[in-house]
Design goal:
Shape: elongated
Order of helices and strands: HHHHHHHHHH
Helix content: over 70%
Number of strands: 0
CATH class: Mainly Alpha
Largest sheet: none
CATH topology: Tetracycline Repressor, domain 2
Radius of gyration: 19 Å
Distance between the termini: 37 Å
CATH architecture: Orthogonal Bundle
Length: 208
């Protein structure tokens, strides 16, 4: 890797870390320059405007998400196990690393972001929703999960509720304690287990 591409990659990695810790509006090009020991002009050379850096971070986030989903699929044993791996990874990132996931960090600055980044974020949110929907569809098909609400089971609606609850629980649990995240998500998963399933042994198996 030549020096130019190496510097660009380092800028992305440092930016991703600052994004997860401070949000997109919480760091400047001067912060990046200081951390890497380079001139601020060098940052502008690779990313002329912060919007350019934001789009690059969206690309980085997409790869981060896809790698995580690939890992969950490779290691997971069924739908419930995949969902629990997603939750454990989310909790580890938030509580052990004191960070937000990059998608949540970018979303928190949504009103201030250029339209191009907002549109890219909408695409990324669908990437996450598509994977979780696939997991719920798998669980419904193989009998691991059940939609107890009236009408036909809707795996996308279930996935949306799962993601929204997870992100909200992470936010509040950072203030009140991670045990509340585990408790909340366990209760949510329990409602989707079949009536004949051993709810206690499966749904409360979220260890963070």
């Amino acid at each position: 890797m030549n020096n130019r591409s190496n510097t660009r990659q380092q800028l992305l990695e440092v930016s991703a870390d600052l994004l997860c810790r401070r949000g997109f509006s919480g760091f400047s090009y001067q912060d990046l320059a200081q951390q890497l020991g380079i001139r601020k002009a060098s940052v502008h050379h690779h990313f002329p405007q912060k919007a350019d850096l934001g789009l690059a971070l969206c690309d980085w986030t997409e790869q981060w998400l896809l790698q995580g989903f690939e890992h969950f699929d490779r290691q997971g044993n069924g739908a419930v196990d995949r969902l629990q791996r997603y939750l454990r990874a989310s909790a580890k990132h938030a509580f052990n690393g004191d960070r937000q996931c990059p998608l949540s960090a970018l979303n928190s600055d949504m009103p201030q972001l250029p339209e191009a980044i907002q549109e890219r974020l909408r695409q990324l949110s669908h990437t996450e929703l598509d994977w979780v929907t696939g997991v719920f569809r798998m669980g419904l098909d193989n009998g691991e999960l059940q939609d107890h609400s009236p009408g036909e089971a809707d795996p996308r609606a279930m996935a949306r509720l799962f993601i929204f609850t997870c992100k909200g629980a992470l936010f509040y649990a950072r203030l009140q304690g991670q045990e509340y995240f585990t408790q909340s998500m366990s209760l949510l998963l329990q409602q989707w287990l079949p009536d004949t399933h051993d709810n206690h042994n499966t749904a409360t198996g979220i260890t963070v």
